[in-house]
Amino acid sequence: MTVPALDELRSRITNLDSELLALLAERRALTNEVAETKISHQIPVRDIKREEQLLIRLIKHGQEKGLDAHYVTQVFHVIIEDSVLNQQTMLAERANPGSALPLNRVAFLGDRGSYSYLATQKYFSRRPGELLEIGCQSFSEIVQKVEHAEADYAVLPIENTTSGSINEVYDQLQHTELSIIGELTHPIRHALLVATSTSLDKIKTLYAHPQVFTQCSHFLAELGNVEVKTIDSTSSAMLKVSELQRDDVAAIGSEAGGNLYGLSAIRSNLANQKENHSRFIVVARQAVKVPLQVPAKTTLVMSTIQKPGSLVEALMVLKNNEINMTKLESRPMPGNPWEEMFYIDVEGNTADGPLQQAIEELKKITRYLKVLGCYPSEEISPTKVAAASALSE
């Protein structure tokens, strides 16, 4: 049964959606022109003060039209983030002529539907060229694909807000000549996925990657008598459940990934922390140049001299040069019992004076130091309004 009035309203909404898409495309084109100006005048990508003023004005304008501040803020956070990332990509392409490929061959963990697959899709959606996905069964295989020129890039998960650092990936970085050229943070939303119409109380066997089980340990504790089976990737877990077609088995993965295997979610938000994100790095055989207008990160690996206070001395070099450290991770050195390699992420560009100075000083006081990569930071912090009172003026 159709209701003419309802059909007319839906038709108007559909037309408005099309107009919105056209306007968003026009806005993005204009921000690309802005990027061209910034390239020629060496202007930083972000102007936080202008973004704050823009957001306050938009919130006030939205309130006049009956839209609440939260709704307007959420919409324009996404729009501003898209603008910043697109401009950063344009500047990076100009700084690395010849880097754009007609075909991007990318190795990642698992297959279609894995979290690494979704992260790969997200990162390369902003890059020119077609995408050829190369699913792998281990981190070592992923790295080898790029080292042997069977892939151009690799996407590797490096840390998660719930389960912490992924040590296997750090160990791979210790033994490769590949360079980190990019990063991205991707939301991880775990769901309980099934192939048939069933219920939670019927589930007897659960498939997932070990990292996923760690991130959902509280949920697993509530399940009781369920057999947990680890598997090499989230996509493999979903494929297994899809093939079994039984009402007593399930996988943990994303709803989007599950859809690719004909699975549906019977429970969502399974992670211990509801704000669950994974950070991924992108590696390649060649390093990239990061324009100074683009916020950059640099990853270093070093071993310190075996004496009291040597690590503190190294970290003081960063402090004295006003370099902000965002990550410090230690991993054992194979063949050297009780000795550690330290991985350090800092905010800064190796082409900029302060970080250059810090690296030179570190070389003098460490046994080993290597830059694993300098790359654009894609952690875009949301624009915040100057004061809540501004919204009610």
What does this structure look like?
Pathway: Metabolic intermediate biosynthesis; prephenate biosynthesis; prephenate from chorismate: step 1/1; Amino-acid biosynthesis; L-phenylalanine biosynthesis; phenylpyruvate from prephenate: step 1/1. It catalyses: prephenate + H(+) = 3-phenylpyruvate + CO2 + H2O; chorismate = prephenate. This protein is α/β, with parallel strands linked by helices. The chain is built from 12 helices and 15 strands. The strands form 3 sheets. Strands 1, 2, 3, 4, 5 and 11 form a 6-stranded mixed β-sheet that branches. Strands 8-7-9-6-10 form a 5-stranded mixed β-sheet. α2 runs antiparallel to α3 and α11 (310-320) runs antiparallel to α12. The longest helix has 38 residues, at 4-41.
Q: What is the average of the pLDDT values? A: 89
CATH third-tier fold name of the largest domain = D-Maltodextrin-Binding Protein, domain 2
Q: What would CATH call the architecture of the largest domain?
A: 3-Layer(aba) Sandwich
Structural class: alpha/beta
CA-based gyration radius: 24 Å
Distance between the termini: 48 Å
- Tell me the series of helices and strands, N- to C-terminal: HHHEHEHEEHEEEHHEHEHEEEHEEHE
Write down the CATH class of the largest domain: Alpha Beta
In quaternary terms, these chains amount to: single chain
Largest sheet: 6 strands, mixed
